[in-house]
Amino acid sequence: MMRSLFSGVAGLKTHQTRMDVIGNNIANVNTVGYKSAQVTFRDLMYQNTSNATGPNDATGKAGVNAKQIGLGVTTAAIYSNIASAGAAETTGNPFDIRLNDSSFFLVNQGNQRYYTRSGAFTVDTSGTLCMSSNGFKVQGYQTETDATTGEVRLTGTVGDLKIMSDLTSPAKATTNGYITGILDSYDDALSSDNGKIVTAQIYDNEGFRYTISFSLKPTDTSDTRDPRDGKYTLSVNKLLDPDGNEVALTDAQKSGLISDGALEFDTTDGSLSTPTSGEVTVSMTSISGVNAAFTDDIVFDLSTLMNVDNKGTSTCSGGNGGTDNTTGSGWPVGTMSSVSVGTDGKITGSYTNGQTKLLGQIVTATFSNASGLEKAGENLYLESLNSGQPSVSGNGDMATGELEMSNVDLSSEFTSMITTQRGFQANSRIITVSDTLLEELINLKR
């Protein structure tokens, strides 16, 4: 039987394999995160009709090369073009994530771990981040809360990301406040019964907002007082509940809120000199019998309050929060309003009370030979003996609101399709011509 027949058959099979790969590439031209595959050929084997001989000085004959007849072609390798990233598609969905590096997302199905470049994620009814196509759970670092400081930190333990488990943000009582501005020595309000009134918003432990009003009066209230002596008394005038109604406090309770409200300003530059710390503590815990939710005292910073002649106008104001207007400000109960994913994979929840909370971090895996991963379908890969062990970390470089598209190059695929088709045709001609030769041989006996 003619060897060319089998060479032609081998060529047909191999070109058919290449066409199968090309067809799969083109079929997945719009598959998120798909990596195109490429086929390479190698010659199959050879039959020696005569072996090679070396030169013979005795006979004077030169060396002769071996006579070898090839027996066809076979598939050498089918490898994925993983190193080439696909184009970015903007979706605007915060749970659509594109990897800017060569790493992979980790997803779990039961006890089986897979790797994927497809970042089309969603959240299921239990609040777990998962793939939108098959529900496989995205893996990442979970969080824990320090019992002492309340700080939320990553645990370093890789597991399912239940990012919607904390839908509310707890309230926090106000622990810091401030009174600032200019207290004018000649302000007529200082001579009134209540003195100069300054208000501030504060929160109790349950997140209810109260309004506390302070009274600033000259220590010397006589008609002969020196308006520039710089001595004043700070006291609590009233406390209003969240509905705007005055909280019933006795005079003793009001006076007990500030144990020492004596203020003294430098008569030269108007800066506060007493108390030297520039702070006054309002003992909210002293009225816990009136409102048990006041479990923290509030330290008010008066260090920026000035006492100068401002043409009879005081411009004092107060607020909750430290010198940065945020420290110890307190806030009400909040509900989750949005979730965002940073470029480092850290997931942050935003709440209606202005607070944010770290919910977890998406981790990624890198391989020494990513091309050695085995495709498992559904945009998933499995590690193999030739891919190496994964290196898992939270160092991924991500872009949110985007997806990585397929890296299939249609122009290259169509060109390969043409050459594959011609190769298939040529190999089929080998078979038909060999058949013709066999037919001629058979006809010799006629």
What does this structure look like?
With about 450 residues, this protein is mainly β. The strands form eight sheets. Strands 7, 8, 11, 12, 13, 24, 25, 26, 27, 28, 29 and 30 form a twelve-stranded antiparallel sheet that branches. Strands 14, 20, 21, 22 and 23 form a five-stranded mixed sheet that branches. The radius of gyration is 40 Å and the shape is rod-shaped. The chain is about 15% helix and about 35% strand. The chain is built from three helices and 32 strands. The relative contact order is 0.20. It folds into three domains: about 5-85 and about 405-445, no CATH class; about 90-170 and about 335-405, no CATH class; about 190-295, no CATH class. The protein has helices spanning about 5-25, 250-255, 410-440, and strands at about 35-45, 45-50, 65-70, 75-80, 90, 95-100, 105-110, 110-115, 120-125, 130, 135-145, 150-160, 170, 175-185, 195-205, 210-220, 230-240, 260-265, 270-275, 280, 300, 305-310, 315-320, 335-340, 345-350, 355-360, 365, 375, 380, 390-395, 400, 400-405.
